[in-house]
Amino acid sequence: MKRIVVLGAGESGVGAAILAKKLGMDVFVSDKSVIKEKYVQQLKEGNIDYESGKHTDALILNADLVVKSPGIPDHIPFIKNMVKAGIPVISEIEFAANHSPARIIGITGSNGKTTTTMLTHHLLKQSGFNIGIAGNIGESYAAQVAKNDFENYVLELSSFQLDGIVMFAPHIAIITNITPDHLDRYDYDFDKYIASKFRITKNQKASDYLIYDADDAVVVEGVKKYNPKAQLVPFSIENKLEYGAYVDQNEIVININKEEIRMSISKLSLQGKHNTKNAMAASLAAQLLKARKQTILESLENFEGAEHRLEHVLKVNGVEYINDSKATNVNATFYALECMTHQTVWIVGGVDKGNDYSELYPLVREKVKAIICLGIDNTKIKNAFGGIVDFIEETASADEAVKIAYKLADKGETVLLSPACASFDLFESYEDRGRKFKDAVRNL
């Protein structure tokens, strides 16, 4: 019997363990941190052996295969020792894909991947496809393969998940964009991060497709460098394309499969240039899979966006409060500020991942009246914007940040939580940060 050791007992790890158990493998789960109660329950229900708060070498190094949580870096000695010992170390994505015949639409990028994943799933589900949504979103891919294997999956894929693939090959891959992010994990080498993103296409064949942003110089350069075997399907809001998707007189034009689809940008349920691109990418995927034209158009109009991504919370005394907690890097916050149409009180901060704030200066000068820092160490933010914005205040809770914003914002203005940083100094996750912000707004 094959012995599988799963490292990390979060959503992906427990899902991988459940699938391995269903496949009749000898499974052991090990987590250096204390396992959350809900996952302990799932492991007990599945009759799966585990250890919590430690790694015991003797129970791990006898594995035939290790499935590693995306949160565990490859370069730590523990993982290096396994690789040295000849034990294959893969991601949950690779493990699940090896045990499912489903067709996969894989989506990666520094920003927009959650919205594009949700939108692609929405378009295809509305078109009658038997389709699941997983990866970096919702219930793990492995758990779904174990319980109710769908014929198709839309997977949101982080660079960390892609680092652990070997044979994984989506039928349709989408790269939304690539900007510096998670550089602390990649030795502060942007090229290593780019290479990680392009792993999504490395196993694709000539019968597969790569949808990509033709306006993104980093992505275009990557396409030249990595020379994918897949058929290239570009989208652009800057140039007219003979094949792919582009913008013509405020209309999106999808031009593939010898059938043209046109839709007014004003009819999209999600506004902003970045959402126009997300809509293009999702529509191209749906069109490649021959979804009905009318259904694509209707679905783009009735789609509701992702929680914590430019999410309108409430209007209080004429001030709009927006939750963009999912903006954990500078580029995502750039999109958010670009979308602001009124003077803005900006809540920013958290765990800095090697951010360069200079690209935000023009938008901050134009749109931001005050900055509220929400983090433990705000030195870099204060240094970056101290000469641009007159008022910068430091806070250590969502409640405090919202109360100060309430005093600062005037009728007709906006309060925007768009942190540009990870959340782990004060919150469990970006979701926890977003929920606490929304609760604080509702309690005003």
From TrEMBL:
Residues 308-421 form the Mur ligase C-terminal domain. Residues 107-286 form the Mur ligase central domain. SUPFAM superfamilies: MurCD N-terminal domain, MurD-like peptide ligases, catalytic domain, MurD-like peptide ligases, peptide-binding domain. Belongs to the MurCDEF family. One of its GO terms (molecular function) is ATP binding. It comes from Wenyingzhuangia fucanilytica. PANTHER family: UDP-N-ACETYLMURAMOYLALANINE--D-GLUTAMATE LIGASE (PTHR43692:SF1). GO terms for cellular component: cytoplasm. The gene is murD. The lineage of its organism: Bacteria, Pseudomonadati, Bacteroidota, Flavobacteriia, Flavobacteriales. Cell wall formation. Catalyzes the addition of glutamate to the nucleotide precursor UDP-N-acetylmuramoyl-L-alanine (UMA). ATP binds at residues 109-115. One of its GO terms (biological process) is cell wall organization. Keywords: ATP-binding, Cell cycle, Cell division, Cell shape, Cell wall biogenesis/degradation, Cytoplasm, Ligase, Nucleotide-binding, Peptidoglycan synthesis. This is UDP-N-acetylmuramoylalanine--D-glutamate ligase. Its EC number is 6.3.2.9. It is an enzyme of class 6 (ligase). It holds the Pfam family Mur_ligase_C. The keyword Lyase does not apply. It is found in: Cytoplasm. Pathway: Cell wall biogenesis; peptidoglycan biosynthesis. It catalyses: UDP-N-acetyl-alpha-D-muramoyl-L-alanine + D-glutamate + ATP = UDP-N-acetyl-alpha-D-muramoyl-L-alanyl-D-glutamate + ADP + phosphate + H(+).
